[in-house]
Amino acid sequence: MPVINRIADFADDMTVWRRHLHTIPELGFDCPKTAAFIKARLEEFGVDEIHTGIAQSGIVAIINGAGKGRTVGLRADFDALPIEEETGVDYASTHPGVMHACGHDGHTSMLLGAAKYLAETRNFAGRVALIFQPAEEDGGGAQVMCQEGIMDRFDVAEVYGIHNFPMAGREVGEFYTTAGPIMAAVDTFTIVINGRGGHGAMPHETADPIVAACGMVQAIQTIISRNTHSAQEKVISVTQIHTGTASNIVPDTAMINGTVRTFDIETKALIMKRMKEIVAGQAASYGVQADLDYEEGYPATVNAPEQAAFAANIARSVVGDSKVDGNFPKFAGSEDFSYMLEERPGAYLFLSAGEGAGLHHPKFNFNDDIAPVGASFFAQLVEQMLPGVK
Fold first, then answer.
1. How is domain 185-296 classified at the CATH fold level?
2. For position 339, what pLDDT does the model report?
3. Domain 5-183+300-385: top CATH class
4. CA-based angle 273:137:342, to the nearest 5?
5. Which pLDDT score is estimated for 231?
6. What was the pLDDT predicted at 389?
7. Are 94 and 7 in contact (CB under 8 A)?
């Protein structure tokens, strides 16, 4: 079936909810206005339980079906980004320097739409756990919610999430997913080099950290080209080098910073090992001291094969076979939904928003036309996974 008729009936309400959330973006775990708005809507819908204060401002709400059965988790993130908005819309952010530049306001409206429908109809046997999560952009709110025990506390059997995706040349309302890794693990490295500065005209009296930094950057790139299999998907990007103050001074220190993206733990471990060896070896070669700080971030987002196939079939029932790609290429971005998928089988999907400014851009604006599509996907997933009395 296409978009559920009842959800289409209140699509305008979903737009109102989303645009209100867009005016009050909040960062990280501290999202009291957003959480209060979500709680108020859930109370209006008549859900059975509302549990607040999880990971500070996160919420888990429970809807009981018409009979007993398993619990399926549906997740939406709701934090914003520290970006000054440039959309020019009349519902732009009222919080200077903060905006919903990744569509989390839309994700929340989609899950609220599904909640309204499911609370009205209850045409399923089991329970739905609606997971509204803070701090996806920074802080790992999904990890904290898991550490606080939501999967066991609410007996979640499987968990699913959606992310909107502006894509040039793609139709609005297309779904993309895949079995196995769909998004990368993200790590950050910082190298601080301590040398011995001096006069630029007498470099022989120095231990030049700039030359050492250049050598390290070049050598780090060989991890990809010479230490890992050419068929493996991985990224190492050096994104910052900071050093020096004047044209005639060799500085004492230099700093290198960058990101590593991997899809499996073996490749990640190899990169960590080789980076440590390269930094130590290059430091010895250039006569400087160097300290590597390798910070592991979100793990890879890995869809369970059975659940990914099931989710793709649900998407086909909503938008049609031609608008679902169940073998979408891996994407080197990262997502803390990965922590939930480490605890329970499930799947993550992208939902095309069509043309428009990209994610994390100051002109980004969620496409409200896809909210009923996402809500219908969530609702259909529950009704088909937990079939009730027709």
1. Alpha-Beta Plaits (3.30.70)
2. 98
3. alpha beta
4. 60
5. 87
6. 58
7. no
Distance CA 361, CA 355 (A): 13
Across the chain, which has 390 residues, the per-10-residue mean pLDDT values are: 91 98 98 98 98 98 97 98 98 98 98 98 98 98 98 98 93 97 98 98 98 98 94 95 98 98 96 98 98 98 98 98 96 96 98 96 98 98 87
pLDDT at 2: 84
| Rama region for 255: left / alpha / beta (φ>0; ψ in -120 to 50; rest) | beta
* Domain boundary assignment for the chain: 5-183+300-385, 185-296
- Calpha distance 11→7 (Å, rounded): 6
**Residue 342 has which token pair?**
């480490």
